[in-house]
Design goal:
The complex is a heterotrimer of chains A (103), B (132) and C (92). With 103 residues, chain A is mostly helical. In chain A, 75% of the residues lie in helices and 0% in strands. Chain B has a two-stranded antiparallel ribbon with strand order 1-2. Chain B is elongated and about 55 Å long. In chain C, 49% of the residues are buried. The chains are: A mainly alpha (103), B mainly alpha (132), C mainly alpha (92). Chains in contact: A-B, A-C, B-C. At the A-C interface, helix 1 and helix 4 of A face helix 1 and helix 3 of C.
Chain lengths: 103, 132, 92
C-alpha cells in the first residue's frame, strides 16, 4: 500500500510507538500475573504482545495479499481476551452449590 | 454493617484523610467546639491521650487543611478551616460517627483496594463468585 | 469474513471498556479509568478499520486525514493511556 512519503513516515512513527507501548504493557501484565497468580493478567499480557506483533507486521509488510490476512492476528488477541473473561467467570468445581447434601 | 451504606462523601473523606480513630476523635473534638482555640496539651487532656500524640494529629490535620492553626499563635488549633467542602463533609461525618461508630471505624482500618484486585474484579459478571 | 473479525474485535474492546469503567465507578481505582479509556480507543481503532475497509473501501481519507493516520493515532493514544495508568496507578 503506497502512501505519500510524509504520511508514510508519520504512520511508521506511530506504529513504532504502538508496538513498543504494547510490549511494555504486556511486560506490566506479566509482572502483575506473577504478583497475583491471576491467570487473567497472563491472558492480557499475551493479548497485548499479540497486538504488538500485529502492528509490527503492519509496519513492515507491504504486500497487500499478506496484509489482508493480518486481521487473523488481531482476532487471536481479542479472542484471547474474551477467553480470559469467560475463564474468570466460570464457576470452579468447589464453588458449585451442592443441593444433594442431605440434612 | 456495610461500608457501602456510608455516604460517598464521608467514605471519600475517610479514605483520603483519616488514618486512625485517634485522629478522628481529635478532629471531632475541635469540630464540636468550633471556633475555640485548642493547644495540643488541652486536646491531650480532653481525650486523655499524650500531648505529643495530640500534637502529631493536630499538625497532620492542619497540613491537610482540615483545621487551622492560630495566627499569631501557631500552637493554637481551631476548626473550621476556610474550606466549605471540608466543613460539610466533617459535619456529616460527625453525624454518621455518632450513629454508626463501628462502621466508620471499620472503614478507617480497611485496607485500600489493591488496584490489581479491582482490575481483575472488574471482569467479574457476578459478584458472588469466590476467588477466581 | 474480515468484517466479522473487525466487529468482534470492536465489541470485545467495548465490552472490556464498559467493564473497566463500571469497575472504576464501583471501586474508585484509577487504573481502571485509564485502562477503560484505553479500550475505548482500541474500540475506535477497530471501528475505523471497519469503516475504512468495509464501509468506505474506495475512500482513503476521513475528513481530509488519511485513515491510516486516524487508526494509528487512536491506537497510540489508547496504548499510552494504558501505560500511564499501569505506571502511575498500578500499585497503591
Amino acid at each position: 500500500m503506497l502512501l505519500p512519503p510524509g504520511i508514510d513516515r508519520l504512520n511508521e512513527f506511530m506504529l513504532g510507538g504502538v508496538v513498543v507501548g504494547c510490549l511494555a504493557v504486556g511486560l506490566f501484565f506479566i509482572r502483575f500475573w506473577r504478583r497475583t497468580a491471576d491467570r487473567l493478567f497472563l491472558v492480557f499480557a499475551i493479548a497485548f504482545w499479540t497486538l504488538a506483533a500485529n502492528w509490527l507486521a503492519l509496519a513492515f509488510i507491504d504486500k497487500d495479499e499478506v496484509r489482508t490476512w493480518l486481521y487473523v492476528v488481531r482476532l487471536v488477541a481479542f479472542v484471547l481476551i474474551l477467553a480470559g473473561i469467560i475463564d474468570k467467570n466460570r464457576l470452579r468445581r468447589d464453588e458449585r452449590t451442592r443441593p444433594r447434601e442431605s440434612a | 454493617m456495610s461500608q457501602d451504606e456510608l455516604p460517598p462523601a464521608v467514605r471519600r473523606f475517610l479514605d483520603e484523610h483519616i488514618r486512625s480513630v485517634a485522629q478522628l476523635e481529635v478532629l471531632l473534638l475541635l469540630q464540636a467546639n468550633a471556633g475555640r482555640c485548642f493547644s495540643s496539651a488541652e486536646v491531650g487532656r480532653e481525650l486523655r491521650i499524650e500531648t505529643a500524640g495530640a500534637e502529631a494529629q493536630l499538625i497532620d490535620l492542619r497540613n491537610r487543611g482540615i483545621v487551622t492553626s492560630g495566627d499569631p499563635d501557631p500552637s493554637a488549633y481551631r476548626y473550621p478551616p476556610a474550606n466549605a467542602e471540608v466543613e460539610a463533609a466533617v459535619s456529616v461525618l460527625a453525624h454518621v460517627y455518632a450513629e454508626r461508630r463501628v462502621t466508620v471505624i471499620s472503614r478507617i482500618y480497611s485496607k485500600p483496594a489493591d488496584p490489581l484486585r479491582s482490575f481483575a474484579d472488574a471482569f467479574r459478571i457476578r459478584k458472588d463468585l469466590g476467588n477466581g | 469474513m474480515a468484517e466479522t473479525v473487525y466487529i468482534l474485535c470492536a465489541l470485545t474492546s467495548l465490552t472490556c471498556a464498559l467493564m473497566l469503567l463500571r469497575g472504576y465507578s464501583r471501586s474508585g481505582a484509577r487504573l481502571l479509568l485509564w485502562s477503560g479509556f484505553c479500550f475505548i480507543f482500541l474500540f475506535l481503532n477497530n471501528i475505523l478499520l471497519l469503516v475504512d475497509k468495509v464501509m468506505l473501501p474506495d475512500q482513503d481519507t476521513l475528513f481530509g486525514v488519511h485513515f491510516v493516520l486516524w487508526r494509528g493515532a487512536v491506537a497510540l493514544i489508547g496504548v499510552i493511556l494504558l501505560l500511564v495508568g499501569l505506571i502511575w496507578d498500578g500499585e497503591s
